[in-house]
Amino acid sequence: KRNVILDVDTGIDDAMAIMFAVRHPGIDVRAISCVAGNASLERVVTNTLGVLELLDAPPIPVAGGAQQPLIEPSRPASWVHGADGLAGLDLPVGGRKPVQQHAVELMRQTLMAAAEPLTVVCLAPMTNLALLLRTHPEVIERIERVVFMGGAVADGNATALAEFNVWHDPEAAYVVLNSGVPLTMYGLDVFHTVEASAETTADLKASGQRLDQVLGALLGYEMVNPLTGAITVNRVIGDAGAVCAITSPELFRFETWPLQVELAPGLSRGQTVVDRRRAIGEDTFYPTGQRPWPTADIALSADPEAVLQLF
Ligand code: BDR
Ligand code: CA
């Protein structure tokens, strides 16, 4: 079993990732930490509890964490996920409540209490994780690996070059990437490739099962571009794919490369920079005085049909 902490900004595709992780027999979700990103922290916590209630999940501790990035204001992705962050579904939370602790404290306690190091799965801006690593560096050896949805080798989405989670809090991403923890990056290059068909989405919506209906509504959410009014439906499983890459890595192609994040203001702020000039183990070139970059196992492509089947 992979024992994990999920760090989320639920979020349409975070919801699908939670569904997959909670229901997959090979994963034990020890805690869920919430962070502002796709929606406000308050909405993210409510959405997360609503998904757990829908799943009739065991009482997994859920905590609210950072309400905004380290140095910038929050910039919620309302037009991608809906004003409530969850396609307007407003899932009931039943009797579920968040724990009293801050998410950083819940993460610390969960890591320190576990018999074995845990996998931290970050599907959101990395603010909580950066605060954790800076505040409690003793947890680093309790983290088996950080698997994060974020960044891209090629194109961005929040900007031409930057992916939303890294763009939303680039300093936090910098702290995490340069912390020394083993890293797996699930970026936009693969994120966009695992997409359900219109038929599957329609079948799910028409199902008599509530969970199917919700899944159909999430996959079929119609995004309305606030500037142009254009409607887009992308049906990608998004963050859920990053969890699939944990349970079934053989369905993905990974390569290990040096990775850094751009912090400078300007067109490329928040871009992940992947240095693919030389193979690891060769004498990789770094400008004089520059520290060697951290490396990450980077998912570059997937077998989309197989991943969808798994999901
Ligand atoms: C990421 O940003 C959010 O919109 C999604 O939940 C995903 O984690 C994609 O850039
Ligand atoms: Ca997310």
UniProtKB/TrEMBL annotation:
**Alphabetical list of Pfam families matching this protein:** IU_nuc_hydro (PF01156)
| Inosine/uridine-preferring nucleoside hydrolase domain mapped to chain residues | 4-308
User: Which cellular component terms (GO) are annotated to the entry?
Assistant: cytosol
Indicate whether Hydrolase appears among the record's keywords. yes
Checking SUPFAM superfamilies in the record gives: Nucleoside hydrolase
Q: Name one GO biological process term.
A: purine nucleoside catabolic process
Q: Which GO terms describe its molecular function?
A: purine nucleosidase activity
For this UniProt record, the keywords arranged alphabetically read as follows: Glycosidase, Hydrolase
Q: What is this protein called?
A: Nucleoside hydrolase
The record lists the lineage as: Bacteria, Bacillati, Actinomycetota, Actinomycetes, Kineosporiales
